[in-house]
Amino acid sequence: MERILTIREEIEKYGTDSVETIELVSELIDLRVETVLELVDEFGTIQKACLNAYSERGKITPTKAYQLNLLGEILMRNTHSSPDENPKIDSPDAIADLYMNEYRYLEVEHFDVLLLNTKNDVIKKVNTSKGTLNASIVHPRDVFKEAIKHNANAIILIHNHPSGNPYPSPEDFAITSRLVEVGKLMKIKVLDHIIFGNNSFYSLKQRGEM
C-alpha cells in the first residue's frame, strides 16, 4: 500500500513506534527507504549495514556512508555498553554478554586481552594485534606487558573469526598454549580464550582444551 503520510508526518502524528526501524534510518540519514533496504539485504542487519557503509560508496555518497558508519558505531556501543565500568567476569557467558556485539561484525581478526584483578573484575581491555592471526603476530611480550603495567592478576584472551565460525584453528590452539606457558612463568593466570563468531562463541576453558 502506498504511504499517504511522509515518514516525518507519521512520526509527528503517531510517534516513532508507528514506523519501521529502516524508515527511521531513512529519515535520519535522508536516504531512500529502498536504499536502506538494499544495504540491509546485503549485510543482514541494520547495524552491520551501517558499520560497513563505506564499502558501498558507489551506491551512496561518502557523506551518507560516513553518517551511516557513525550511526552503526552508536548502535554497537549502546548494545554492549554496561553501567558498570569494571564488570565482573565469572563465566564465558558473562564475557559473551558483554562483548559479543562488539566482535561479531568485525571484518578482520582482532586479538584482545581482558586484564583482571584478584576479584575477576575487568581492569581494562587492550588490543594486541589486528589482521590475520598467527603466532608471530600475537607475541607474549605484547600481551603480558599490558598485564604487568596494570598489575593484572589474570587475563582472558579474546579474538574473533570474521568467517562467523568460532571453532578454534590450529593456530588458535598453538597461541593459547604458548601464552598459558608464559603466564605460568610470569605468575599471571590465563583463565580462558574466547573466540567470537557470528552470534556464537567458543570457550577453550569451557571445552576443557586449556
Protein model, in words:
- The protein has helices spanning 7-14, 21-29, 33-43, 46-51, 62-80, 92-103, 140-149, 170-186; strands at residues 110-116, 122-130, 154-160, 189-196, 201-203.
- The chain has 210 residues and is α+β, with helices and mostly antiparallel strands.
- Helix 2 (21-29) packs across helix 3 and helix 5 packs antiparallel against helix 6.
- The N and C termini lie far apart (58 Å).
What's the gist of this structure?
The protein is of the alpha+beta class. It has helices at 7-14, 21-29, 33-43, 46-51, 62-80, 92-103, 140-149, 170-186, and strands spanning 110-116, 122-130, 154-160, 189-196, 201-203. Strand 1 and strand 2 form a beta hairpin.
Euclidean distance between termini CA atoms: 58 Å
- Output the structural class: alpha+beta
Strand content: 15-25%
Apparent shape: elongated
Q: Low-confidence stretches at least 5 residues in length (pLDDT < 50)?
A: none
From the alpha carbons, calculate the radius of gyration and give it in angstroms: 21 Å
Helix/strand order, N-terminal first: HHHHHHEEHEHEE
The CATH topology annotation of the largest domain reads as Cytidine Deaminase, domain 2
Q: Can you count the beta strands? A: 5
